[in-house]
Design brief:
Elements: E1 5-13, E2 31-37, E3 40-46, E4 52-59, E5 64-69, E6 75-80, E7 83-91, E8 97-105, E9 112-115, E10 121-125, E11 131-137, E12 143-150, E13 157-160, E14 166-171, E15 176-181, E16 194-197, E17 202-207, E18 213-218, E19 223-229, E20 232-241, E21 250-252, E22 257-262, E23 267-273, E24 279-288, E25 292-297, E26 303-308, E27 312-318, E28 324-331, E29 336-343
Antiparallel strand pairs: 1-4, 2-3, 2-29, 3-4, 5-6, 6-7, 7-8, 9-10, 10-11, 11-12, 13-14, 14-15, 15-16, 17-18, 18-19, 19-20, 21-22, 22-23, 23-24, 25-26, 26-27, 27-28
């Protein structure tokens, strides 16, 4: 495996995000963003005024599949399409990077990475495998492998309850959700404690900020909705909201607005939470954009970033009424396919 090579440079990108309506007050925090493409990535800082500044551009001999932030500010973990190794990259505040093998092997090449919301644990899920690899984060960022968890082959997403005590896995091939107990260290149990039926081809799982509800987005159509009651998932009424097309490019902001890409007219659809967490259609979010590859929530805000196939991004402030206001645009390097955002 070859190390990442870095070309450090500065490039200011205007992204007006002032007055965006964050999810709460308190001390100012910094946001870092990593834009990942095929074999390369770009590292950005986001200032308090919303300016996005490119700190580093780097390339990798492998093909990057998934990226997540680590425990320390400026640290990220990568999986690759052509290797089962998980890489660790560390940036300082100026974008200087060092890289190493993290010590965790993914179940297979092309795995998707996840991190526990409060425990030092990283997880690797491969759609071609029936297991989730797990690794404990050490002080230097390396990962110590621990026992794996069993899943259904073809599973596409993993999420955690608000208190971090339970994990949910989207069994895409069987149209189900597996519910797992999570131990005090963040270790997911070897087997599910319960399995529930849901929408066809579940592809993305979203837990509301208050931890009360799980929403299941589909690559075939329909939105599943559950109440989270301890270790149980209880279907709401209706259990599935009919929807004609895929809706898994989605994010929920702190004000409870679910925003997802509407493929039929290339717009953004918005749903809001009502009593008990049942979703209601709020209508279009006043944005039309082509070929959205994913929708991201900016940490600690009521903003979403729409990433398109061309590598451009649109930043929107999402109102509680489901109406989005475009705040700015950003042009990422060509080939960018996914983003990782972290707040510290």
């Amino acid at each position: 495996m070859k190390a990442l090579t870095v070309a450090v440079g500065l490039m200011g990108v205007a992204m007006a995000m002032v007055g965006c309506g964050g999810s709460g007050g308190g001390a100012s925090k910094q946001i870092r963003l990593l834009a990942v493409g095929s074999g390369s990535a770009s590292y950005y800082s986001v200032s308090e005024s919303g300016a996005l500044t490119q700190l580093a551009v780097y390339n990798n001999a492998g093909q990057i599949r998934s990226v997540i932030p680590g425990d320390a500010s400026g640290s990220f973990y990568f999986s690759q399409l052509n290797s089962d190794a998980v890489l660790l990259a560390k940036f300082d505040l100026n974008g200087i990077v060092s890289t190493a093998d993290s010590g965790l092997a993914a179940p297979d090449a092309g795995s998707i990475l996840f991190k526990h919301p409060s425990k030092p644990m990283v997880y690797s899920l491969a759609t071609t495998s029936n297991m989730v690899s797990q690794g404990t984060i050490q002080a230097n960022g390396s990962l110590t492998p621990v026992a794996s968890a069993s899943v259904v082959v073809g599973s596409k997403d993993l999420a955690f309850s608000g208190n971090g005590q339970f994990a949910y896995v989207a069994y895409t091939a069987t149209d189900q959700i597996g519910v797992y107990a999570v131990g005090a260290t963040g270790l997911i149990g070897a087997n599910p404690m319960m399995v529930v039926n849901t929408v066809d081809e579940p592809a993305k799982l979203i837990v509301s900020d208050d931890g009360a509800n799980l929403y299941v987005m589909s690559s075939a159509g329909g939105i599943g909705q559950f109440a989270i009651q301890g270790g149980n998932l209880v279907a709401l009424n209706p259990a599935v909201i009919p929807y004609a097309s895929a809706n898994f490019r989605a994010a929920m902001t702190g004000n409870g607005v679910l925003s997802f890409y509407r493929e039929d007219d290339e717009g953004i659809e918005t749903y809001g939470r009502t009593v008990g967490g049942v979703l209601t259609n709020l209508g279009a979010a006043n944005v039309v954009t082509s070929a959205v590859t994913d929708v991201y929530r900016l940490p600690g805000t009521n903003m979403v970033l729409l990433l398109t196939a061309s590598g451009s991004g649109r930043v929107m402030a999402m109102g509680s009424d489901g109406v989005g206001s475009q705040l700015g645009t950003v042009s990422f390097p060509a080939g960018v396919k996914s983003l990782a955002l972290t707040e510290f």
